[in-house]
Amino acid sequence: MHKSIPAPNLSLDSYQDNGIVYSEAEKRERAALGLPACEPSPTGLIKKLPKGRVPVAKKAISAPTVLNEAGEYGSAFTRGLRVDLPGGVTHLFISGTAAVGPNGETLYPGDFRAQLWRTYHNITKLLESEGATWHDVVRTTCYLRDIERDYNEFNRVRNEFYRALGLDPFPASTGIQARICRSDLLVEIEALAILVR
């Protein structure tokens, strides 16, 4: 039996601006974060850090020759971040990366292996943009749209790629079945690399 979920209770006190309806509960939670209760927030509104604290140095990672910036199609993330820590240690956090081309287009719809190889190509270029290689990657998280159908091929390609690189040991990894951001993307991988400079 299908149970319906009631719509959110928008009281008469709800406010609508630019097509967005702000419920009383949402207005309270926005205000608690220091945002305007019922209007879009200006950029840079919240800049609070604990007294005496300096944020860690971060730099966006990009490889525009092989894939565009996610913000170009409305997503609020960077392709990766470089974080330099004291002692010459650098962490590279590569966001979930898929078979996306330099214009933001999905490449090879329906071809799982071609999408996986392009995903590795894109991540390789992101790593290279910071002087890193797959030998610096310590962890990956791998999202497959249909893990039961595609995992054997995924593992075969991954093993071939890692062996061709001479990785020993392989990075730690987790495989997850997930709905990826676009219905025509079949695989997405995020990676963490650590470099000592």
Structural notes for this entry:
- The chain is an alpha+beta fold and about 200 residues long.
- It folds into 2 domains: about 10-50, no CATH class; about 55-195, 2-Layer Sandwich (60s Ribosomal Protein L30, Chain: A), CATH 3.30.1330.
- It has 3 helices and 8 strands; from the N terminus they run E-E-H-E-E-E-H-E-H-E-E.
- The strands form 2 sheets. It has a 6-stranded mixed sheet. A two-stranded antiparallel sheet has the order 1-2.
- Strand 6, helix 3 and strand 7 (about 170-175) form a beta-alpha-beta unit.
- Helix 2 (about 110-130) crosses helix 3.
> Biggest sheet: strands side by side, in what order?
3-4-5-8-6-7
Q: Please write the string of helix (H) and strand (E) elements.
A: EEHEEEHEHEE
Class from helix and strand fractions: alpha+beta
How big a fraction of the residues is strand?
A: 15-25%
Can you tell me the CATH class of the largest domain?
Alpha Beta
In round numbers, the mean pLDDT is 86
Give a short summary of the structure:
The chain is an alpha+beta fold and 197 residues long. The chain is built from three helices and eight strands, in the order E-E-H-E-E-E-H-E-H-E-E. It folds into two domains: 37 residues, no CATH class; 140 residues, 60s Ribosomal Protein L30, Chain: A (2-Layer Sandwich), CATH 3.30.1330.40.
